[in-house]
Amino acid sequence: MNAIQANNYQIVFNENSFEYLSQILIPTNYSKAIILVDEHTNEYCLPSFISNIATKVEIEIIEIEAGEGVKNIATCIELWETLIELGADRKSIILNLGGGVITDLGGFVACTFKRGIDFINIPTTLLSMVDASIGGKNGIDLGKLKNQIGIIKEPKAVLINSSFLSTLPAKEMRSGLAEMLKHGLIFDKTYWDKFKNISNLNTDDLDDLIKQSIVIKNTIVSQDLTENGIRKSLNFGHTLGHAIESYFLENEEKTTLLHGEAIAVGMILESYISLELNLLTKEEYAEIKYIITDIFEKIDFNNSDIEKIIELLIFDKKNEFGKVQFALLNGIGNIKIDQIVDNSLIYKAFNDYKRV
User: Fold this and answer.
1) 285-305 CB burial, b ≥16 within 10 A, e <16
2) What is the CATH number of domain 170-354?
3) In terms of Cα–Cα distance, which of 69, 76, 68, 74 is closest to 36?
4) Which CATH number applies to 4-167: 3.40.50.1390, 3.90.1150.10, 3.30.420.10, 3.40.50.1970?
5) Tens digits of per-residue pLDDT, 54-92?
6) How many Å separate Cα 278 from the centre of its chain?
């Protein structure tokens, strides 16, 4: 499978990824390589990863807890201090082996340590392969508010090895599908159509779908790295989805949602808003709602939940001049950015979702 050229780095696949890494990790390039893992990737992914690395560069391993709860400044401080203790310098490199939390957090730590060192993303979840590891966004949460602190800087490389997916629970695989569905909805109806018979897909199909999804995101990001225009299209489903994710994360009475689970709800809600604004047909909305709810379980919301979720929208990092900005579908495969939506329409969207 051929590599994809991003702005300033390559996205390399499967059998070629370890050879490419070996070409990068040479002593004249780097003094030390630090592999950042969580407790899960340390157990399930690190052994095979280490066995395939051919380098004379000194390797150190740092393990952190798994989960969104560690994606904060306290963990960054611990990691910066650990890097100092390990003797990391300006010529060190961080290898982020894990899901979206590891790539977001590890990238941010690398970008800020000694004013910036190189990093490589090696995503191990479907979500991080098709979304989090691609595009140069690195960051952490502020309290329960998602991705409030961060920097845009591209990695040295992204290495995609689908063999890591064999370690994932089904729930995590579904979470990654949300971003793939989004890529079809905002950019490519033909790609979206491939998910209509998802039960018939095999492993080879998945590899192709992963690559197509990455091509879509990379095509968008390459035109607009700093999100001043077309990159905003990638926020479809995320304005409400992130608010839902944050609310369920901070509320002890709620079961924490995976990112893709929250985004799946956000896509249905924002598709309904697109329908109400005459950007989608009833048939298109019904199709979107059916396919997403066939993959993802329904989430229950009461009126108090909805009010608090809407209150969280004001903290969305995409807001401008105090206005909440939505990216809405303009037919399947097209997007309309910078849309202001009245709260009454958001309430209507939630009421429609309740009828799933």
Assistant:
1) bebbbebbeeebeebebeeeb
2) 1.20.1090.10
3) 76
4) 3.40.50.1970
5) 999 999 999 999 999 999 999 999 999 999 999 999 999
6) 29
